[in-house]
Amino acid sequence: MIGRVTFLKTSKFRTLKMSHDNAPTPLTSSTCSPLTGTIRVPGDKSISHRSLMFGTLAVGRSTVKGLLQSEDVLATADAMRAVGATITEQEDGSYTVDGIGLGSLLEPEHVIDFGNAGTGVRLTMGIFGSHNIAATFVGDASLSKRPMGRVLDPLRDMGTNVIARDGDRLPASIRGAETALPITYRVPMPSAQVKSAVLLAGLNAPGETTVIEPIPTRDHTEKMLKGFGADISVTRNENGERVIKLKGQPELKPQDIDVPGDPSSAGFPLVAALIVPGSDVTIENVLLNEHRTGLITTLIEMGGDIEITNRRETGGEEVGDLRVKASQLKGITVPADRAPSMIDEYPVLAVAAAFAEGDTFMPGLDELRVKESDRLAAVARGLEANGIPCVETEDTLTVTGGANNIGGGTVTTHLDHRIAMSFLVLGMAAHKPVTIDDGAVIATSFPTFTSLFAGMGASISANASEAA
Ligand code: S3P
Questions:
Q1: What residue numbers bound the domain in which 102 lies?
Q2: Is residue 10 included in any domain, yes or no?
Q3: pLDDT in tens, 167-205
Q4: Ligand 1: which of 114, 119, 200 to mutate, most ligand atoms within 8 Å of CB?
Q5: Same domain, yes or no: 196 and 337
Q6: Cβ(114)–Cβ(143) under 8 Å?
Q7: Which of 58, 210, 217, 231 has its CA 20 to 30 A from that of 329?
């Protein structure tokens, strides 16, 4: 099989344009006065990626309001253009996606650079993997370290040819199967990306693809595919595991999508308002999907004053407004089985824990080791650099709150947007300013982060020595 894959030419990589290879931009965040205001965070990253992808697979025009205009999502837009979609920003900031339809993807004429975007590349590999086209994927230094085997292995089972760097890392080239095999796949780790990649490959496979999910993860792929007209069902088997069945080769119909605010991005103003004394902030229009609200549940258990108002439904998803006031938090044990519903929020939770009375114990964190950075290590090193006691094990983190004289450190962000933003939040309530070595990577998911926080009263400066 491997012998057939002759399209990976080293010359292709000479055109490589890696994101975040420019000079780093250090930022310093200093103790600030109370944060106040009513804000909106940008659109949900998971739904934004999927809107562009599913719009491409439908025949006709979808519209997307509130799309997250971040580097990650724009990389997905470029990938979808490379296979024939027309994606256009309109004057009012919404996007149109003119899809070409499942089964009709064109072969990309260039290498696809996904920058920092794990969701983008893994889901796209799923889509392309069952189309008879060849494609080569690259990413930045962070994405090139992340494991792709978790997606490439089931794709190989479905008939996709793969050549990847050692350990199934990027750069990787695939040629989709002429006729993909529908499979039954039990997802070995709690990962919505893996689940989604298999389902998306199954879209263009004749017959029924089944994904068994022992630990539930975000369900945007299932919900949105149904909305686009796919024949997809979710039941529970006798072991209580989610069983997702998808009938291949449906005709997907274009949709009008309104992307709600990203709860992962909302985590930053949420924690900042809790830890900066006197703060009172309202975050409007936040996605409240039950697989995404673990941080809110945890912060409320820690004693956070968070009121959820104006709960409503848009496009099959629950959204609401969050009013959050500064609170004295207390340390808790976060149940390990809550991890999938707050997997991207542990860095900022660790910051909240630094201001809580006593210890906060976070078990079940093994997946944090394979995010945009080894987040467990990056958080622990960042806390230590700022005088906050913590203990890191293979899959747990314990943070002891209430230390005196915290801050004053420089945090290495390892091209990880959530590490960058979390430690800027730390600086807002620490005794001494906190510096991050590179703020450019924030554009991955939350390009308006610094201006939004400045508007609430935060003090983030690009000139480290001035702010200190
Ligand atoms: C995502 C799934 C999660 C999450 C990521 C977005 C998605 O990754 O960390 O930011 O949109 O499916 P895993 O599937 O690796 O847990």
A1: 45-257
A2: no
A3: 999 999 999 999 999 999 999 999 999 999 999 999 999
A4: 119
A5: no
A6: yes
A7: 217
